Amino acid sequence: SADRFFHVQLYHQTRDRRRDWRAFIDDPLAEQLGAPPFETDLNEDLEEARTHLEFQHTSVFTPATKLVFGASHREDHYESDTFFNGKGSTHRSRAFANLEHGLTRWLTTNAGGMWEDDSLGGTFFSPRGAVNVHFSDRQTLRFVLSRAYRLPDPFESRPDWKYRGANITPEEASFLEGQRVEP
């Protein structure tokens, strides 16, 4: 209807990055491992997938009062021998609401918040309040008081970054084949 509407959004994205090279290792690391200088195949391969579903509802009670609320859920999956020593997944759920009320033609208030549950960071509530002073249709001064959280992604919170050599030559260094070594 003219005073109530909603939207649903669903998206899925994947990323498959392949990066490999032949490396010559001739540094103190090789000596610490008891190996002569050697060549090996290395990679920084990474597969990622994200699925996100969101629902949002808007209600216009009067021309001066509007309510928006909704929820979303996101699943992330990743796989990399180099960056994570395998695969894993995370999820994040959110619920949010915002009430806007125009007190006068030149003054509008907003109050809202967002609850988040993140498998890496935990559970958080972010409140938000705002006052908007409208000088004209094209000029507004906004005062906002809020609290927000930046939640880390798996690469920031669960890295296990090591390279696994393959096709190592010469034979004297082949004992390193398949072992993971820090960069």
In short:
The protein is built from three helices and twelve strands; from the N terminus they run E-E-H-E-E-E-H-E-E-E-E-H-E-E-E. It has helices at 28-32, 81-84, 154-157, and strands at 4-17, 20-25, 38-43, 46-62, 65-80, 86-104, 107-118, 122-136, 139-146, 163-164, 166-169, 180-181. The longest helix has 5 residues, at 28-32.
Structure description:
With 183 residues, this protein is mainly beta. The protein has three helices and twelve strands, in the order ββαβββαββββαβββ. The strands form three sheets. A seven-stranded antiparallel beta sheet has the order 1-4-5-6-7-8-9. A three-stranded antiparallel beta sheet has the order 2-3-11, with no helix packed on it. Strands 10-12 form a two-stranded antiparallel sheet. The longest helix has 5 residues, at 28-32. The model has no long low-confidence stretch (mean pLDDT 93).
